[in-house]
Structures are given as structure tokens and as C-alpha cells.
Amino acid sequence: MDGKNFKEIPLDFTFIEENEMRPRAKSFNELLQKRRTVRDFSNKSVPRDIIEQCLLAANSAPSGANRQPWHFAVITNPEKKKKIREGAEEEEREFYQSRAPQDWLDALAPLGTDANKPFLERAPYLIAIFSQKFELNNEGNKTKNYYVAESVGIATGLLVAALHNAGLATLTHTPAPMKFLNKILDRPDTEKPLMVLVVGYPENDAKVPAISRKSLEQFTSFHEN
Ligand code: IYR
């Protein structure tokens, strides 16, 4: 043995020539630039195996101490979707009518969002994403996870990218508070709902808000000297 007290395996890494790397980087960017958050969902069904592949892609995310501190609850059951819509709309009415400060409402105005969430019943899939601050081991003892928010955020980002790459539209939906999800989906109290990802096809005549993305100069700084 090599004296290390953990097991290692050879890295399976694909080296790519720079002249091939450039077009690959560009085309991946172009693919992701076409992703838009969608709110006009069609009720057209999506095969489960496609969703499963995207979930496996998400589960490749790096995570604190490799704890993979996430749970993805995949909902297609119409009654459960209805309950989730009811729970979300109740919170959202509260949010839009009283909880949200004016500056937040002003920030949302260009997106045209309101408390009505019909897509929660219409889209074929809802994926409720939970983060696991703790895990129960076999003896029922709690063990702590690390960098949970970061880990689940990365996994969620990969899921959004994987679904877009597969040809599906998504909406990152964050009704707050979201504890009603634990109840409907029978998830333990140790799990905190992060968001509901709405997944499906856009409606044929779907429209999206006219928004822009920051230029490279606006959101980066290169420190070369
Ligand atoms: N959760 C609300 C409000 C909302 C908040 C943000 I920040 C958004 O980018 C979009 C919506 C809703 O889903 O309507």
C-alpha cells in the first residue's frame, strides 16, 4: 500500500485540446443562454426516465465532505400537486398582500408575478428540493452535514442545467415559508425545503419577461497583475 489511510482510484479525466475546448465552451454557453425561467407551462407529459437522468446529473454535484445533503421529491400525483398549489398560494397571497415590503414588490414588477400559481397543477413534474442539515444514522443519532446551502445550491443549478439540456423548461419557485411541503410530502423535520422546481414543456405561445443579463465586464474582475 502507499501509506495513505483512505482508498484512491485513478482519475477518469478527458483531456481536450484547446482548439476543441474553445468551441465547446462557446456552445455550452450558447445552450445555457437560451434557458429562461418559464411560467406558462403545458400539461404535456414527460417520460420519467428523462427526469431520472437529470436527477443523477444533479447528484454529481460536489458537496461538503461528500455528504450529498439533498433530497429531491418528485411529484406527479394530481392530488399532491393540488395541495402544494393550495399551500403555496396561501403563502403567496400573504406575501403579495402584506408580507412583502414595497421595494421587493417593485423589484418583482418587471417579472409580472403574482399569488396565482396555476403551473403548480398544470406542469407534469414538481421537484421539491430539500436540504439535510442533519442526517440520521442507523442508530437514530443525528450527524451534522457541512456547507449544506452551498452543496444543495450547486446540485439544484446542475439540475436546472441538465433539464434545460434535455429540452425541458423549469421554474425555480420559492413560496415562503415552505414547511407545508414537509407535511404534504411526508419528509422529516430535519429537512428544510429549499425550493420547488416546476418542470415540463412551455405552452406553445409561452411568453417571458423582457429581461437582460449582465455583460462579462459587469459581473467579473480578472486579477492578472
Ligand atoms: N415567491 C414569490 C415571489 C417571488 C420572489 C422572487 I426574489 C422572484 O424572483 C420571483 C417571485 C413568487 O413565487 O411569486
UniProtKB/TrEMBL annotation:
Domain of life assignment: Bacteria
Family annotation (InterPro entries): Nitroreductase (IPR029479), Nitroreductase-like (IPR000415), Nitroreductase/BluB (IPR050627)
Keywords: Flavoprotein, FMN, Oxidoreductase
One MF term in the entry's GO annotations: oxidoreductase activity
SUPFAM superfamilies for the chain: FMN-dependent nitroreductase-like (SSF55469)
All residue ranges annotated as the Nitroreductase domain in the record: 33-201
Keyword Transmembrane found: no
Annotated protein name in UniProt: Nitroreductase family protein
Native source species: OM182 bacterium MED-G28
Origin organism lineage: Bacteria, Pseudomonadati, Pseudomonadota, Gammaproteobacteria, OMG group
